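We modelled the chain as a single entity of 146 amino acids. Its sequence is:
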Amino acid sequence: MLVFSYRRELEQVWQGWFTVVCFTAVITLAALANLASTALTISIQKDWIVSLTGDNRGQLAGMNAAVWRLDQIISISALLFMGQVMTWASHVIGYGFILRWSLVSLLVESLFLSRIFQLVPQLAVKPQQQTGALPRKATGGCEHSR
């Protein structure tokens, strides 16, 4: 939001190179945020849902489908909504709304995840998974990390 709002002023610093630095920082932060979001999604879908459903494969399939549907509906709705905000208001208002929404949702999501983690004790225990690694004897005492 700030880079687009003050673009003309930024282009006058360092013969325009400060704008490049700002866009690089924005892209890097967006990539890190995407990585963190993917890690959270994987941890919830791979660990938490499996822990909550236990050995019930039908319930696991149902919860995975529900999470996927919810994710898709929210993704599509968010794009449509933000497109309307940026079309009818302005890009700066849209960027400000996204900023505020992200901060508030981060706080609310963190509170909910923390509460769920406290209420369901089996989430604190990571289940043992088959990694396909050979026993220590078969590898000659050397284990390879992945």
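As a brief sanity check on the tokenised model: DSSP finds five helices and no strands in the chain. Residues 90 and 133 are 55 Å apart (CA to CA).
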